[in-house]
Amino acid sequence: MTASGIISAIVIGAIIGALGRLFVRGKQHLSWVLTIVIGIVAALLGTWLASFIGAEDTGGIDWIELALQVVLAAIGVSAVAGSAGRGRR
């Protein structure tokens, strides 16, 4: 993996993670680094899932892949924020 690949993974992870946080209700006490990590994992899983169902390459913007990535990021943010919240009580 090249330096540009790592930088693009961080940027895409930040965007996907931020979009995932927008869909989760309430306040999440997550750092921006954790948001990026969740976004990177969600982007990778969403891309894999889109290729698994045969929707990885469509004409124009891959809306199905993007939707899968954002939904997975929202699930990840919700799970991590929920587990972090339980530990603080």
Detailed description of the structure:
This protein has 89 residues and is an all-alpha fold. The chain has a domain at 29-82. Helix content is 75%, strand content 0%. It is built from three helices and no strands. The longest helix has 25 residues, at 63-87.
List the helices and strands and how they pair.
Layout: H1 3-22, H2 32-53, H3 63-87
Helix pairs in contact: 1-2, 1-3, 2-3
Question: What Rg is obtained from the alpha carbons, in whole angstroms?
Answer: 14 Å
Instruction: Give the proportion of residues in helices.
Output: over 70%
Structural class determined from secondary elements: mainly alpha
Total number of beta strands: 0
Give the quaternary arrangement of the chains.
single chain
Measure the end-to-end span. 41 Å
Low-confidence stretches: none
Largest sheet features: none
**What portion of residues belong to β-strands?**
under 5%
Number of helices: 3
Q: Estimate the global geometry from the Cα principal axes.
A: globular
- Mean pLDDT level: 87
Order of helices and strands: HHH
Please describe the structure with a list of short key phrases separated by commas or semicolons.
89 residues; mainly alpha; 3 helices; globular
Summarize the structure.
By secondary structure, the protein is mainly alpha-helical.
